[in-house]
């Protein structure tokens, strides 16, 4: 049966995630339990848009996926962010050239790798931002690939730094992008335990530290041909996504959905407080109207409405989550500043949307709003 955001099992999952969300604070608090639970509930297969030949659940529509992300982020943004990176890896593997071509490499991916990623027994991540945005200003590739052989097996040797990898010290696979000598690109699958891989322990950040996001250093790492997913070719990240996938990417709906989910959590706190403080009722009503409008806009965009602009939606989502979490802090007063109060966590997490995959036009719009410029 297709997942529904109103189903009892999904609501039970959300309650469990919300009850554990406060546990994920430091780089020592990787949310393994919550991730495994999501895998057991079929979340990863649904969000990946994977063919039913690989899983026993029907393909979710893009709207199903967006609604699921909103619900998950409302319960636990940290775990949901990790899920987006895990699902991103699954999608890249499922859309790989080698899987489409068949053969031994495809069999390994389809029979050994993808099933463990879909059920959550193994978590993966992506290290591809350096092919699109991160460190491009340096004028040289962050990760270089050179054709090579080892023990009679052809492949590539990778050297360089992957600047941002969620779950760097904790995941079992990383989908990595690299640039060849002729400026073509490849996508490969590495094990963090491969010889020459040096993983960061996770950066301590203002928020989201438990995502264990950090750099991974590659020192002449050999990747056999069987773990080359796509390429070499120009713009290796451009293949079409699997059917039914929600739009992703910098400024995409996925990020806006997570911002809206977090904002809903803060709104629910305001709503609960309004039952005891009448002055909050008009504030809650105004916020509620704004949330519903944005929610419907995101649904329309996910459903294929070409009249919706993802950057404009992201700007609205960024602004809303900042204002709602700040309103919750103002309402909580001193209690919200305590380390164990959820409002403080939500305010810190809201800052994440100002930097995570935030396109320059969205950042500029926020700066103009802060400065009172039209």
TrEMBL record:
This is Acyl-CoA dehydrogenase. Transmembrane segments: none annotated. Gene3D superfamilies: Butyryl-CoA Dehydrogenase, subunit A, domain 2. It comes from Stieleria magnilauensis.
């Amino acid at each position: 049966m297709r997942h529904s955001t109103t189903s009892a099992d999904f609501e039970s999952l959300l309650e469990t995630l919300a009850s554990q969300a406060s546990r994920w604070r430091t780089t020592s608090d990787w949310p393994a339990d919550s991730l495994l639970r999501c895998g057991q509930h079929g979340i990863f297969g649904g969000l990946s848009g994977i063919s039913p030949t690989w899983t026993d659940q029907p393909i979710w529509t893009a709207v199903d996926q967006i609604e699921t992300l909103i619900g998950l982020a409302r319960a636990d943004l940290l775990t949901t962010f990790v899920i987006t990176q895990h699902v991103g890896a699954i999608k890249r593997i499922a859309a790989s050239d080698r899987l489409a071509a068949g053969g031994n490499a495809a069999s390994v991916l389809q029979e050994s790798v993808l099933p463990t990623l879909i059920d959550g027994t193994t978590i993966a991540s992506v290290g591809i931002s350096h092919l699109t945005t991160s460190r491009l200003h340096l004028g040289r590739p962050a990760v270089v690939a050179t054709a090579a052989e080892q023990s009679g097996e052809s492949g590539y040797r990778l050297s360089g730094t992957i600047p941002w990898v969620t779950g760097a010290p904790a995941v079992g696979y990383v989908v990595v992008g690299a640039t060849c000598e002729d400026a073509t690109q490849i996508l490969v699958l590495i094990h963090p335990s491969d010889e020459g891989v040096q993983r960061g322990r996770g950066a301590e950040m203002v928020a989201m530290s438990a995502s264990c996001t950090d750099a991974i250093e590659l020192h002449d790492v050999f990747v056999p041909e069987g773990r080359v997913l796509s390429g070499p070719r120009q713009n290796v990240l451009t293949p079409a996504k699997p059917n039914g996938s929600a739009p992703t990417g910098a400024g995409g709906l996925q990020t806006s959905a997570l911002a809206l989910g977090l904002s809903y959590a803060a709104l629910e706190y305001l709503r609960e407080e309004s039952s005891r403080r009448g002055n909050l009722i008009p504030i809650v009503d105004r916020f509620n109207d704004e949330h519903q409008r944005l929610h419907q806009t995101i649904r329309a965009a996910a459903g294929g409405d070409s009249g919706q602009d993802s950057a404009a939606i992201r700007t609205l989502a960024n602004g809303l989550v900042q204002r709602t979490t700040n309103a919750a802090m103002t309402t909580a007063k001193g209690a919200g500043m305590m380390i164990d109060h959820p409002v403080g966590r939500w305010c810190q997490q809201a800052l994440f949307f100002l930097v995570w995959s935030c396109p320059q036009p969205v950042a500029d719009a926020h700066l103009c709003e802060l400065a009172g410029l039209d």
